[in-house]
Amino acid sequence: MGDLQSLRDFIKCLDQQSLPRILQICSGVYFQGSIYELSGSEVCLSTGDLVKIIGLELLSVSCEEIDTGTSFELPTEYSGHFRLVAEDLPYNTIEEIVGLCPVGVDACGSFTFMCKNELTVDNFTLPAGKQLTLLSVEVTKNGKRLARCQLVGQNMASAEILLPLSLRGEFYECQGDRGYSLQEIMSSFRLSCRRFCSINEKSVRKNVVKFPSSLEVDVQDVTEQSQDLVFITPLSMTEVASQPKASFPTMAEILDGPEGNQFFNCSWFQELQRGRRLVLHGCGTTTLILASTPQGRKGKQYFIISKGYGGRIRRRAREFGSVYELYLASSQSPGLKVSVTRHCEEVEEEGMPALSVGEQLEVLGMSLMDGLKDKSGAAQKVENLICKRTMEVDDDEEEDEEDDSEEISLPLFMPGHFVEKLSDNKKYKLTELLSSSLPLDIKVVTRDKELEKDPLMGLPALKLEETFTETTVLTSLPHKPDWCFELPVSWLQMSLCFTSDRLPWSSDESPELHVETVTEVTEKFYYEYHKLISKIEEPPPRPPKRKPSSSELPKRSPKPGSKSQNLKSTVTKQLDDLSLGLTKGKRAPAPPPPEDTPDQPPPVLPRKSMSITDSVSPQNTYVKSPMAVHKSATTDSDSEHDYESIEETIKNPHESLFY
């Protein structure tokens, strides 16, 4: 039986996973009036009654101000947000951070920390004070747990490092800028145990409001004294983009800038500060291309590229690691041709043909073919990629060689190494490549001359992944009104207001605009974008289950008393009875001596004399050892002992054989 406690304290500590629970009414008073008023039905609870708790419904949240201790309640539909207050308590290991951080490690970028001392992991040294963001926990093949963290360096460049959970140091939580709703806090046990500060969101009325004249307020007419007063109308980015075309170009002032930099690694984002003036040239819909670089020393980089990018591009050959990847690429690019870059051995029972380096494959289509047979004897249907295989030949041998191509079928589960075969080396415009199916691997060979600095120039490779349309506002800064950048409306949470300031150019002539067509974005932007489009790719097919060969079958030991066990015992016994020229039991007698041999023993040969100089290594003439005489005497005695042992062994040859 549990301890006596109030209903509120019991509900506060109740774990919903433990429901249902049975309570007994002891005594006390009810909160918020009589129990009869609940749900309009008359209910009476008497002392000794038993109540079964089957569920909880959150009606309000009780909060307490840390400074004053004042308590108040918030409704569950409260729309405000709260920011975590960083604790001053240190963490001693990475494992403590993973176990005690306020949110789970599956929430990307949710917990940021720093170390007061310098850390060394393998050959990498992390300076003291660098901020790290916990991303996930990974387990290696040998069972070692590692924490994947993101390190943000200069110019917002990010890199990922793996830290062992046993790494020790003096770690402290950093103040984050992420806001949590009331529902998020109450649904997480770790968050509900932390302290928060309210994010003061300014509430400004944007529209005309009506109020009754019966309000009990005193007023005074100050119209004459307030001629210069301007009433502003805050506009969100969506509202700015919905303004008529006649409203542009115009000047605007930032009322509330975007909080934190979660999505952009570009220079213009740093200019979006509160109170900054902007020139708004217009708004419209822009076609953008999402691009990424391969994994390198600085990590992957991500870009959104406008359709008007003016650089010149060459296509790069794509690499494929399986037949399934070939199938996906061929479905977007019919007639795909590849070269085999690694040998592949034939597995006849799984229908996998042999492939050699240099063979050319042209994808023709898909087909269902019979594979391995299941237990019932029916053949399994396996998806195969039908390809035309030819050998790579030189140009001078091409005329002499006849067409020796053949059609082969490759199961989709078959691994392999292929590289795309390109037929041209042409320099393309970005608009020309957009007519092809994406993704495409490219390399920028000529920079966009309209840009002050082209961030795509010099990259070893770039993958154009997909295109999307975005509502943008064409913007520039007053001191450089002709250099423009596009603000994506759905990715910036900020408010503006139009002002009556004069445009930074004469009314007779408008400046020639140069648009920044490349914007570097963060990894968070990349993954948030894919969450929005909810693109789910099916996994590659698994190879069919094959019957194990006789060598792979587990060997069963025969039961005792069985026929096979008795046969084995008999054979083992016969083998044990065998010997190397010896009979079982006593040793065979020596053969009789010849008749003409006299009874006297054979003569003993004289022992070969050996001097000390013959048996001892030459003495070091450069260093006089005081133990030389002792060593010589010891060696002489040891030599005589060795010869006696040899003589004894010769006298007893049979015993020495068994020893």
From TrEMBL:
Domain CABIT: 19-205, 248-476
Basic and acidic residues bias spans: 638-659
Compositionally biased intervals (Pro residues): 589-605
Ranges where the record places region Disordered: 536-659
Signal peptide: none
Record's compositionally biased regions (Polar residues): 562-573, 610-623
Family: Belongs to the themis family.
Protein name as it appears in the record: Protein THEMIS2
